[in-house]
Amino acid sequence: MLQPFFPSCHPPETGLRLLAATCLLLLTWINCYSVRWATRVQDFFTTGKLLALGLIIITGFIQICKGHYYWLEPVHSFQPFHDYTVGSIALSFLQGSFAYGGWNFLNYVTEELVDPHRNLPRAIYISIPVVTFVYVFANVAYITAMSPQELLASNAVAVTFGEKLLGIMSWVMPISVALSTFGGVNGSLFTSSRLFFAGAKEGQLPRFLAMIHVTRCTPIPALLFTLLSTLLMLCTSDIYTLINYVGFINYIFYGVTVAGQIVLRIKQPNMHRPIKVNLAWAVIYLLFWAFLMLFSLFTEPVTCGVGLAIMFTGVPVYFLAIYWTNKPQCFNLVTGKITRACQVLCSVVYPEEGPDSCGSEKTNGEGKEGALFSD
Fold first, then answer.
1. For residue 14, what is the enclosing H or E element?
2. Is the dihedral of CA 111, 113, 119, 122 positive or negative?
3. Which of 49, 61, 109, 154 is the most exposed place for a label (fewest CB within 10 A)?
């Protein structure tokens, strides 16, 4: 969004951070105000993003038909790169997989998903091939117009691509990139906040995060906590370092989660499983996961170490807020007052204390739990 105002140089970092913070604040307000609004924003920006990527892909195919595929030929594609160590390949996989990082987000909102046993697998089956197709062919399109050096030097690849090939219509690309990132942040904010909400309901995070608004039923404390932790990420301006931090931490939890499926399948083979996956996929995933983790840690020990340090900052919070049960009365008094003040400020209550207007319907005198209430 700022690139057109700085045509001959990169936008200042302060301006980028302020713009990012403004977008985060706006999207947090929308998510706090209404779940319906948040989903509509997501639908609109996802549609805009796919239309823009479709334009890029079509332009790339036109370029190939014209014979502009020099950098797509294998003999030329890897000329600028000379680092073929196993560690660098593992790190490139870790960075590249960031583009596919949304595959697990829908699991966080199963309470608000209609018929999750059917629609959750269906959404994954549809979205993974679509994202793969769009991502691969968009990069193919970029390479028809830009060399690998230009790709690395560009601050916004789609904007540079539009300036080269779209002529007077090049203004479409900055808007498209903005739509893409705006929609992506909205989706992450919507789903990640539910992760904190669910963790608090299970007693693994401070219980205040499990509160919802008295009438809108939105998890405002969890959304605000997500906002604050996301704003902290603006402290670094190197997007690749940030991707390495987030990617390494995410993959640790992905591996633990997948390994947990194998353990539960062995220890509790008769458990009811509405969605069941063949364990062969879990084993294949863990082998690939071990490759990524070990060699990424070996190649970038400092970056991965910082990522681990960030992750372990949650340990003292867990011990103070959850594990330590015999807290002194003064500690409970202070935290109680803070919780009460936050409740009044945000107009939130625990789900079991909420009114029927939050989604529950009365049928023959029995309560029917609604969106955020069900377990």
1. helix 13-33
2. negative
3. 61
